[in-house]
Amino acid sequence: TGSGSLSHSLIRTIRPHGHLYTFDFHEQRVKLASEEFARHGIKDYVTSAHRDVCLEGFGDDLKHKADAVFLDLPHPWLVVEHAVNALKESGGKLCSFSPCIEQVQQTCMKLEAAGFVDVRTQECLQKELMIHYKYCSVLNLDDEILKK
C-alpha cells in the first residue's frame, strides 16, 4: 500500500471491471490509504488490508484469482511462492520494484526456480533537471494598440 500512489494509478487502469487488493504491514498506512481511497471516490475498486505478505501471503480469498502481483518490498524473493498461489492457474504477471541489483538477482533466481518464464529486468534511469526561473516584465498591450 505504502503512500497509495501506485494503487491510485493501478485503480485508474483496472476500473470499472477490475479490483485491486493491496497489503501493508504498517497498519497506519493501510488506514490512511483507505481513507484517501474513500475521499477520492475509488473505494469500491480497492480492498486494503493490514498484513505481512512475506509471512502470511495474500490470503485464501485470492488463491488463483490475481491477474498480476506487484511487489514493492525489501525482500521480494520471500513472496514469490505466495505470489504463485495468488496468480491465476492459467498464468499471470509478477512485477517487483527493486532498487538494488542484489534484490533483483535473488528475486530472479526465485522466479526461475518457481517456474516463471520470460523473466525480464528493466532499469529505469532518473535524470536530474535543473530548473531556472527568469522573470520578464509584462508587455503592456494597451499602449501598443493606442499607437496604431
Automatic annotation (TrEMBL):
This is tRNA (adenine(58)-N(1))-methyltransferase. Residues 1-143 form the tRNA (adenine(58)-N(1))-methyltransferase catalytic subunit TRM61 C-terminal domain. PANTHER family: TRNA (ADENINE(58)-N(1))-METHYLTRANSFERASE, TRNA (ADENINE(58)-N(1))-METHYLTRANSFERASE CATALYTIC SUBUNIT TRMT61A. Keywords: Methyltransferase, Nucleus, S-adenosyl-L-methionine, Transferase, tRNA processing. It comes from the Eukaryota. GO terms for cellular component: nucleus; tRNA (m1A) methyltransferase complex. Its main location: nucleus. Pfam families: GCD14 (PF08704). Its EC number is 2.1.1.220. It comes from Bracon brevicornis. The keyword Cytoplasm does not apply. SUPFAM superfamilies: S-adenosyl-L-methionine-dependent methyltransferases. It is found in: Nucleus. GO terms for biological process: tRNA methylation. Signal peptide: none annotated. InterPro entries: SAM-dependent_MTases_sf, TRM61_C, tRNA_MeTrfase_Gcd14. GO terms for molecular function: tRNA (adenine(58)-N1)-methyltransferase activity. It catalyses: an adenosine in mRNA + S-adenosyl-L-methionine = an N(1)-methyladenosine in mRNA + S-adenosyl-L-homocysteine + H(+). The keyword Acyltransferase does not apply. It is an enzyme of class 2 (transferase).
